[in-house]
Amino acid sequence: MTSASVNDIEFRSVTKRYGAVTAVTDINLAVPKGAFVALLGPSGCGKTTCLRMIGGFEQPSEGEVQIGGAAMAGIPPYRRPVNMVFQHYALFPHFDVEANVAYGLKQMRPKIEAAEISRRVGAALEMVRLGGFGKRRIHEMSGGQQQRVALARALVNKPKVLLLDEPLAALDKKLRTAMQIELQTLQRELGITFVLVTHDQEEALSMSDKVCVMSAGRIVQFASPQEVYDRPANIFVADFVGKTNRLSGTLENGNAVRLSSGALMPVRDTLLAPGTALTLAVRPEAIRLAKAAEAAGGIAGTVTHRIFLGSSVEYSVAVSGLGDLLVTAERQSLAADGLAEPGDPVRLVFDPSGAHVFPA
Amino acid sequence: MPLAPATKRNLVTSALVAPAAAWLFVFLVLPFIAILVFAFGERAPEGGYQAAFTFAQFANLGSRAAAFRNTMMIAPVGAFLCLIVAYPVAYFLAVKASPKYRLVLVSLVVVPFWTSLLVRTYAWMYILGSRGLPNLLDMVGISDVRMLNTPGAVLLGIVYGYLPLMIMPIYVSLEKLDLRLLEASADLGAKPLSTFFGITLPLSLPGVMTGTALVTILLLGEYLIPQLLGGGKVFFIGNALVDLFLQSRNWPFGSAIAVTLVAVVVLVLLVAMRIAWRFAGTRQVDLV
Amino acid sequence: MSKDYKDSLPISASRFMEEFMRLKRGSVSRRHFLGVTGLGLAAAVIARVPGLQGGAAYAQDLGTQMSIATWPNYHDPATFEAFTAATGVAVEVNVFGSNEEMLAKLQAGASGWDLFVPTNYTISTYVKLGLIDELDIAKAPNFSPSTQNTRFTNEGMVDGKTYALPKNWGTTGFAVNTGKIKTPMTSWKDFFELAQTEADGRAMVHDYQLTTIGNALVSLGYSFNSIKPEELAKAEELLIKVKPHLYAINSDYQPSMRATDAWLTMCWTNDGAQLNRDMPEIAYILGKDGGEIWTDFYAIPKDAPNKAAGYALLNFLMDPAVAVKEHIANGAPTTDSRVIALLPAEITSNKIVYPDEAALTPLEFGAAVTLTDPGRAELMARFKSA
């Protein structure tokens, strides 16, 4: 099989330097047709640079970016079959909503008839549920509405790939959640490839088919959201995606680790040699909390804080020699909400499948 | 009884505004009233003003039609040439120049203003005179080139003299321009020229209008450049006014021309504001 | 190439400043340029040395300050310093670009001048408008009526009363670069003909109606002072025909002549003498068909705040020992034979400064009406805007 027929976007050994600063190093990435991929990472990790290289606003220093199997070297943004939803939307303030959405269509050659443009613009606005807003001025629209105008303005051109640069960052949480669902629905309906840049791991996990976790200009992991969460490629991913307790210890044998506190902790089988120094990433939900009086085994600790999150409760537990550990308890799994109160002595029982082991 | 806070605020505002208002009244309003009165008077036999009420001065405006025509033609053309030259400079300063050097470059635009226009125009007389550029051209075999005292020299002087006044407002409006809008335009398939005419130019129009109105208005009163670089053969309203007030001392007629000129300036401003107004609604927060 | 690169530069910095300072001093053209640029309104205090007490000759209280309105570069600055040293009166010098400007300022009132320097054809107008007083000649004992050449000084008298005392006289002719123009020129007729032929694009006329229209009239055989509509119409026709061929309409002609941008220009005596001194190929010619002769006078405004000092300075300036220094500084010929006697031979023998009697005969004094005639002002405006 040839990659061109399957992948909408391909990075081949792409490096981008700005003077002495290297923004991204040796990126290899293939985004399959119709996928929803999130580029996730902290600010400065190179994710936006990658997106801008797809859009054509930056040129790789080395390597090659392909879109739909065609090399894009030297192709300016206005000749690329992609469209972008910009951070802060970059809507044209001197046009009304309609003119903003029609802008791309008006650039097309051969020219599209005015009536056809108007029809497509209307349809695009309907699609983002802004029918009837065509004559509004941009500054008369709310943040969420502007977001949708930007979406319509990009999608009306039927791009091969839609690029989204932190599209939801400026919205409040509730609107953001709603838009996440809307974007997912749109992507499924249209069947075109979406590439989303975000620093918000929740956003990346909830919307995309595949998450590309980046750090310091390199791809650290490219996998499904579940895999990224459940099988982080390294301690950075484990730390960055979801909440994690970081512990250190030494491998005792194939499936137990002697923690720095001296306690022994069961882990999944590992091929590492006994005696290897390790860093452990333990998800808060992989730790079970039990009243000290009711459980034997596990590690003893004392509850310091209790945070009610609605569907779950988060405890902070001080363990001697390990510091404060975060423990999440689903509410239905508890006999009562008041399982433990700050100050209560508790025992922590680790689920070996929720502990990830990395050589230190 | 202590003053109500609102009254107190008003008093403070008045106190702050009063000096400027008094200055404007004494040096702008009063002289204008005097000119208005003069414009309906008569020239005394030995020159100067003689009280009367007549429209004769305005009826005589036709005798300076050529001056009005020259000015009305050169002012917009000069402003347009200024615009053509200023826009790329302003664009470069605001968009392309490295922020590190921007302040220095912008200062360089303003620096000529530290020297009087008279001195700078006088310098041009030497550059364009036969011992200047024509002499250099002569050395490479292009002889007998006339530069000074030509309409071209006047236009050059105008563009040179008024360029900073055109660059600065355009620079200011371009500097506010969100560069992402240009990327968005390119992303939507617009070629650079389409982006310029569709996005950049419209959004910098307030600056363009400000600069154009400023330069046009000042050009309407220009007299030094045509005198020095045009050899006095190009006659502007400004030159007509100088002659009427300082030479033939026909103050009433000069006043009538001045009043007419003010009316023209007001008209130019209104048109400029009209055009700028249409785009005023677009200067929104999302631009900044 | 042996030529120094500096010779090819448009102008060196020092040369520019020199030219510009010359311009500021006003030697390039006393009448117009400064009026146009507004520099004419700049005032300079030549000397402010308070506390010096006057000698016996000035027993009267002269105050400490006075003001004179005059032409740029028209005096030897040492003159005023000497006056201040002798009397303790500091002299403020106001320079003007044209007679018309002086008239306007005086007419507006409160000029503050104690002495000023009007040209002959304006004096009757000043008298008519009641702006100047009859002079008390007894207060200027240095003035010697008997040694004056009355040909030049008559216009200081109106209705038999003396309103102004002469400073110097001069002529309006034309300067021609004989290195460039080979045809011999002797008249204003020649001037306007060559301006359209051999000096095409190289001739300058004054930006001043009195001389430009006057000389055009003379070239057509009419009086320099004509205000007859049909004669003015002919002059207008000529001027408008010549205009496309002119290099410039500008009373600031020295720079253009020196740069040889212009080869031919209307010219006043002192400019002619200066040009000829520095560039001998530039000749100064008086039209044999006519032209202007003029005299500048001293007069005291009616509303002078310090008339005593005005008279004191007037008397000081009438002293031949002072007047000869003034002559050497400004270059224009004197009306007083006592001064001529003190002048070096190279000045008295200079035909530009002291032309032969025959050359002066066809010249006319400008008339008061020539200055104020609205018809001539309008003609000038039409010429300039054509």
Automatic annotation (TrEMBL), chain A:
Function, as annotated: Part of the ABC transporter complex PotABCD involved in spermidine/putrescine import. Responsible for energy coupling to the transport system.
UniProt xrefs under InterPro entries: AAA+_ATPase, ABC_SmlMolc_Importer, ABC_transporter-like_ATP-bd, ABC_transporter-like_CS, Mo/tungstate-bd_C_term_dom, NA-bd_OB-fold, P-loop_NTPase, PotA-like
Record Gene3D superfamilies: 2.40.50.100, Nucleic acid-binding proteins, P-loop containing nucleotide triphosphate hydrolases
Entry-linked Pfam families: ABC_tran, TOBE_2
Reactions performed catalytically: ATP + H2O + polyamine-[polyamine-binding protein]Side 1 = ADP + phosphate + polyamineSide 2 + [polyamine-binding protein]Side 1
EC class (word): translocase
Family, per entry: Belongs to the ABC transporter superfamily. Spermidine/putrescine importer (TC 3.A.1.11.1) family.
GO molecular function: ABC-type polyamine transporter activity; ATP binding; ATP hydrolysis activity
One biological process term in Gene Ontology: putrescine transport
Keyword Hydrolase: no
PANTHER family xrefs: SPERMIDINE/PUTRESCINE IMPORT ATP-BINDING PROTEIN POTA (PTHR42781), SPERMIDINE_PUTRESCINE IMPORT ATP-BINDING PROTEIN POTA (PTHR42781:SF4)
Keywords assigned by UniProt, alphabetized: ATP-binding, Cell membrane, Membrane, Nucleotide-binding, Translocase, Transport
Domain named ABC transporter: residues: 9-241
Top-level taxonomic group: Bacteria
Its EC number(s): 7.6.2.11
Record flagged with keyword Translocase: yes
UniProt-recorded name of the protein: Spermidine/putrescine import ATP-binding protein PotA
GO cellular component, as recorded: ATP-binding cassette (ABC) transporter complex
Assembly description: The complex is composed of two ATP-binding proteins (PotA), two transmembrane proteins (PotB and PotC) and a solute-binding protein (PotD).
TrEMBL record, chain B:
Compartment(s): Cell membrane
GO biological process, one term: transmembrane transport
Keyword Transmembrane: yes
Membrane topology: Multi-pass membrane protein
A Pfam family matched in the record: BPD_transp_1
Protein origin, superkingdom: Bacteria
Keyword list, A-Z: Cell membrane, Membrane, Transmembrane, Transmembrane helix, Transport
InterPro entries the record matches: MetI-like (IPR000515), MetI-like_sf (IPR035906)
Chief place where the protein resides: membrane
Family statement: Belongs to the binding-protein-dependent transport system permease family. CysTW subfamily.
All copies of domain ABC transmembrane type-1, residue ranges: 68-272
Native organism: Metarhizobium album
Transmembrane segments: 20-41, 73-94, 103-127, 153-174, 195-220, 251-273
The keyword Transmembrane appears for this protein: yes
Gene Ontology CC terms, in alphabetical order: plasma membrane
Protein name: ABC transporter permease
Automatic annotation (TrEMBL), chain C:
Molecular function as annotated in GO: polyamine binding
Entry annotated with the keyword Metal-binding: no
Chief place of localization: periplasm
Pfam families the UniProt entry points to: SBP_bac_8 (PF13416)
SUPFAM superfamilies, A to Z: Periplasmic binding protein-like II (SSF53850)
Domain of life: Bacteria
Any one biological process term the GO annotation gives: polyamine transport
Keyword line: Periplasm, Signal, Transport
InterPro entries with a match to the protein in the record: SBP, Sperm_putr-bd, TAT_signal
CDD domains in the record: PBP2_PotD_PotF_like
GO CC, any one term: periplasmic space
Location in the cell: Periplasm
UniProt feature coiled coil, ranges: none
Protein name: Potassium transporter Trk
Organism of this sequence: Metarhizobium album
Organism placement in taxonomy: Bacteria, Pseudomonadati, Pseudomonadota, Alphaproteobacteria, Hyphomicrobiales
